[in-house]
C-alpha cells in the first residue's frame, strides 16, 4: 500500500502493463513516474553524480544512521 500526495485534482490514474510506472492525469498534465520504492531508488541513483555527504545526511535525515543509498556512486 502506498499514499501518493498530489497538489491538484486527479482525473485519472493508470499503471503501466508491467506495473512499474504510474501515470496520473491532472488538469492539462500527465505525470509518469516509477512508483515502487526500489524503482524510485534505481531511477534516482541513475541520475545522481554522488551520494549525500555525512553532513548532508545529518541535515536531511538526522534520525537515520548514515549509509550510501547508491552503492555504485562515490
Which percent range fits the helix content? 10-25%
Estimated structural class: alpha+beta
Number of helices: 2
Tell me the number of strands.
3
Q: Low-confidence stretches at least 5 residues in length (pLDDT < 50)?
A: none
Overall, the morphology is elongated
Q: How are helices and strands ordered from N to C?
A: EEEHH
Strand order of the largest sheet: 1-2-3
Radius of gyration: 16 Å
Largest sheet: 3 strands, antiparallel
- What share of residues are in beta strands? 15-25%
Distance between the termini: 32 Å
Mean pLDDT: 86
Tell me what you see in this structure.
This protein is α+β, with helices and mostly antiparallel strands and 74 residues long. It has a domain at 12-60. 22% of the residues lie in helices and 22% in strands. The chain has two helices and three strands. A three-stranded antiparallel β-sheet has the order 1-2-3. Strand 1 and strand 2 (21-26) form a beta hairpin.
SSE topology sketch:
Blueprint: E1 12-15, E2 21-26, E3 29-34, H1 37-45, H2 54-60
Task: Write out key terms for the chains shown.
single chain; 2 helices; alpha+beta; elongated; three-stranded antiparallel sheet
In short, what is this structure?
With 74 residues, the protein is an alpha+beta fold. The chain contains 2 helices and 3 strands. The chain has a domain at 12-60.
